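User: Could you check the structure of this?
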Amino acid sequence: MKIMTALEAKNRFGEVMEAAQRQPVSITRNGRPSVVVISAESYARQQGMARQRMRQAMQRAGEHAAAHGMNEDVLGELLADES
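Assistant: Sure, the predicted structure tokens are below.
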């Protein structure tokens, strides 16, 4: 991962964009990591993987709930309960 200070990134933004096409670029402020710049392709890939993990987690949760007696009638009763 390439590391640059915020001032370097500001003054050489074109280089930041070029470098981010090849690898993430960490931008530091006051000596601490502040942001990471990645390519649009990398961002889209990460978002796709996150959506897939979320779908899998929701599927597992639904299967677990069904295995323990949850169904639409029970869910309706739970949602209607105003206590």
